[in-house]
Amino acid sequence: MKAPLLLILTVWLNSQYGGCAFSSSCSYPPSQWCSSLDSAIQCGVLKQCLESNFTRSRQTADPVEVGLYYESLCPGCRGFLTEMLFPTWLMLDIMSVTLVPYGNAQEKPDGQKYTYECQHGEQECLGNMIETCVLNMTKMAFPIIFCMESSADVIKTAQSCVEIYSPELSWDSVMNCVKGDLGNQLMHQNALKTSALKPPHQYVPWVTINGEHTEDLQDKAMSSLFTLVCSMYKGPKPEACGGGKRHYRSYCHNE
């Protein structure tokens, strides 16, 4: 899933600096660029797909599990997700991410369903629900949520973010989930996961590493999640963590 995202960045950089990595004959959405040999060849990204698969094949230990308990309109949550968590996840294939959009919401039973009150109002409840449904409906949920949370208006951009990163997922189906029984039950599961935290969460963003939360881990995650994940990975460190011996020492001398 990360490979297409990295390829999007590659395509953009090449377009900015005169390259031509992406083929105009490509008929596949970005999420499917590396799904098969045919799609990689047609879209002109075979080399990048092969390199990504090679990196994953060298992993010899379990990934570091990073959990984020958050709410969609919390400024601190948005900052951590977009500026720390998502970039680190893109750069490191040695971590997995679990997102739980609920945060400081309050759940109340209402017959066979539940109602929710959110810290930042009804719009935040809607944002939480959209992101919860997306997490259940597509493997491209994290990029969609990053797109939403990094925008000026989380709610208004939700549909366009879905269309960009998961064009096969219809917005109507997302909203059917949001307004229906499925979304209500999925949010109830988020509520249960959040209430089961030990120690109980006192604020958001609330970060767990391999299922554990301590103030020390939280502080390290907030200051440099990249460094924390690299230090906790038990396998051989990837080059991005400084585990390789490759050095880039190329200089342009003043002549």
UniProtKB/TrEMBL annotation:
InterPro entries: Interferon-induced_GILT, SAP_A. GO terms for molecular function: oxidoreductase activity, acting on a sulfur group of donors, disulfide as acceptor. One of its GO terms (biological process) is immune system process. Pfam families: GILT (PF03227), SapA (PF02199). Residues 19-59 form the Saposin A-type domain. It is an enzyme of class 1 (oxidoreductase). Its EC number is 1.8.-.-. Keywords: Disulfide bond, Glycoprotein, Immunity, Lysosome, Oxidoreductase, Redox-active center, Secreted, Signal. It is found in: Secreted; Lysosome. One of its GO terms (cellular component) is extracellular region. It comes from the Eukaryota. Residues 1-21 form the signal peptide. The keyword Heme does not apply. Lysosomal thiol reductase that can reduce protein disulfide bonds. Facilitates the complete unfolding of proteins destined for lysosomal degradation. Plays an important role in antigen processing. Belongs to the GILT family. Dimer; disulfide-linked. This is Gamma-interferon-inducible lysosomal thiol reductase. It comes from Oplegnathus fasciatus (Barred knifejaw). The lineage of its organism: Eukaryota, Metazoa, Chordata, Craniata, Vertebrata.
